[in-house]
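Subject: complex prediction, re-run

Hi both,

The earlier run crashed halfway through, so I resubmitted it with identical inputs.
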Amino acid sequence: MANGLVENLRRLPTNFRESLVRHERPVTDRSRSQAVFTNLFLHIHSTRTYVRTLAPAATGGLGVAALSFFAILTATGIALMVYYTPSTEIAYASIKDLHYVVPTGRLIRNIHRWAAHLMVLSVMLHMCRVFYTASYKSPREFNWVVGMGLFILTLALSFTGYLLPWDQLAYWAVTIGANIAASPRELTDALGITDSFDPGGFQKELLLGASDVGQQALTRFYLLHVIVLPAAVCVLLGVHFWRIRKDGGLGQPGQVHNAAGKGVEDETPRSPDVEGEKSFGLMAIVHGTSPATDEEPGTTVPSWPFALRAELLVFMVCVLVSVLLGMLFDAPLKEIANPAVPENPAKAPWYFLGLQEMVSYSAFMGGLVVPAVTIVGLALIPYLDRDPTEQGVYLHGRHSQRIAWQCALFGLIASVLAVAVPVNFGWLRTWFPDVSQLVVIFVNPGSLLMAAFAGWSIVVLARSGSTRRSAIALFTCFVVGFLVLTIVATFFRGPNWEFHWSQATWPVH
Amino acid sequence: MSDRLAPEPLPRRDVLGLAGLWSAAIAIVGSLIGMSRLPKPSVLPESGRRFRIGRPEDFPEGTEEVLTEEKVLVRRTPQGVAAISLVCTHLGCIVSKDASGFGCPCHGSHFGRNGEVGGGPAPRGLRWLEVTQGVDGRLVVDADREVQPGTWCEV
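This time it finished cleanly. Structure:
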């Protein structure tokens, strides 16, 4: 008995290891494959990965970067929750404590802030990469839609996190955001039906739980920020990754998908010896007596360790960048929220500034209609553009590249005009003081810009007869418009949202 | 009797199974819809927005006083007393007085001296709030009650 126990104890490490992982050391193709697909966390990968998928230029690692920042945000966010208290009375003080008293609190808050910015940035760049390599095409249409959902959730996470420090910036950004939610009132007021039909007021009340930003709003935003939205992101991320596998991994050059929507070569990479046959997992890669086993499948490599190594590299770079930024720059914290005195100028974070620029024309059009139409339009791109196009290549074909440059130029001119005309000559109310409010709501630089972009992509469609080129036109215009409005709002808007070439000419208070 | 032997288009077993499945689905969705009523408060958790601003004598003719806390401008003219809300009708920032009326710091809306829209994105003029005189003679502003611009409380 006693001997048996001693023997069991002696063999405990071995037995435990063998119960934990049921494969050899991952040194052969076989055991490497097992390492991937017998592991719950790794089996999201295929056992083999295309060499090209791992080339840095193919993806820029942007999707993995976005995931890495989400992981960093989750870890630092949980740490911050230890001390942060979502109460209007002590929220600001608890952030101050985190900054000045809590060991490493300052660094962790800084990392949380910069990782949030970087996550938004990498999600946006990832979307551009997927678009310009035509990777949204069949069979990956639905994953593009899931990606749009993740994009919206990322922005929502960032916006809800904004209120939590309860400083001036937080208070006024959320006041503005809640009133954008209430902005259908512009329309219902102009039509005189607000008393009986008030969707704007309903949305605002749902968001704030009161008529002004206060404790109720802070509780709701905290709930959204720490539970609801992260949980939704996790679910959508799971779907997103699962669909990548099911849709055949990264789009590869040479894969042209026909308009019927069925992929031609969209299978997950397998060893060549089982092409077209039934694969029974391991048998696909096992070394044995099958005639093709000695052939090296040159286009693929085992995911363990190659794909994992690449992902780890991206993750480490993301950690490094966030930590460095966190050490070098403090996350901003303004004075404590003061409901009586707004910030001047009250600027949202950079990725909302394009929106804020449009809101300065009309809250309803700029804050709700234009963003909603843009998001729906982007989500529908894979269903409107069914052209067979080579995937995995940036802007395939010289013609597409020329279209992209033309559209970048058109988008630049149109968006600069949309800002320059109102700045220099005023807008409808300056010209016709008695103009109807409905006209002012619908005819503003933001909605005209959107109409110009949509019109331009229809012109491209008519001239080239290609929906892919039309999609390139629309997307390029959108990106350029976003950039121009963001830059204008960031650098050239001063107090009272007036245009200033530099901060040096801001009026002194 | 013969049609009992003929194959039914949808087997009875499946009908029961599907009915069970759909009832479960309706029950789950129904409960979720019921729960979604919760976040809309039936009573807003905030104090009343009626406030006393003082006696008519505190505002001699020609005065214009900004009450920062209450976010109103109190104006006294020979016609009476009026209160103009300083909350911008665009997105809720607080406007401040300038040479020709009121300007909003957030998105550049501009209003004339009587709160009428002068420029920028504001969809409508600043709200004029109801001013009444209480039994004790003090003036009361009700921020929840809007009146036509140009309505004065005679004192």
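Chain A touches chain B through 48 residues (CB under 8 Å).

- K.
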